[in-house]
Amino acid sequence: MGGVIITAAGLAVIAITGGSHTSALRHYSLAALIAVECRVFALGAALIRISMRGSLGPAARGLLLGVAAGVLFGVSDIALKYLTEALHGGVQGIVSKWTLAALAASVLAFYASARGLRLARGVAVIAFTSVAANLAAIMGGILVFRDPIGIGAPAVAGRVIAFGLVIVGAALMPAPVRARGAQGGWLGFAPAPSARR
């Protein structure tokens, strides 16, 4: 639970220090949008492919699918942010390849998440999905839409520390698997019934 608490604290600090700012469509970088979307989508697809390896246990495969779902939800979030800004250009602004990208990423993320929840404990999968989705969306906002990290030095410092907390918390989450895996499955509980084939 320590990793979950640390991650939650980091995400809370990020939300509190977010401040208010606007991001006009003219400020986005098309090259960055294409690069980020393609690479994050490829990362999600690669994680799904790795999760299919029979050498991995159900819990590990479930966590990989949770991370894959998160980064794919991030792809959808970034595309939807672009489409939201594009609405200023009229309804025709939403008829684009980014609409297809958002739909494809969302559908793939949904199925990856559903499969992950069947293989591993729900709390862990949801936590990994949330962390991955938030990190992907935040990095997309910074790299694509040039969103500020924070407003003022305290906010910037707070958010940098919060990013570190999120990463540390995510790294700590699998610890119970290593410590208790031989005694009762994920987080000390019995393996999910659906994991047995």
Question: What's the layout of helices and strands?
Answer:
Layout: H1 2-16, H2 30-51, H3 58-86, H4 97-119, H5 122-143, H6 153-172, H7 175-184
Q: Care to describe what's here?
A:
With 197 residues, the chain is an all-alpha fold. It contains seven helices and no strands. The protein has a domain at 26-149. α2 (30-51) packs antiparallel against α3. The radius of gyration is 18 Å and the shape is flat. Mean pLDDT is 77; it is low at 22-26 and 175-192.
Roughly how many Å is the radius of gyration? Answer: 18 Å
Question: Would you tell me the structural class of the helices and strands?
Answer: mainly alpha
Secondary-structure element series:
HHHHHHH
Portion of residues in beta strands equals: under 5%
Number of strands: 0
The proportion of residues forming helix, as a percent range, comes to over 70%
Total helices: the number is: 7
The span between the termini is 28 Å
Overall geometric form: flat
What is the arithmetic mean of pLDDT?
77
Summarize the main sheet. Answer: none
Low-confidence stretches: 22-26, 175-192
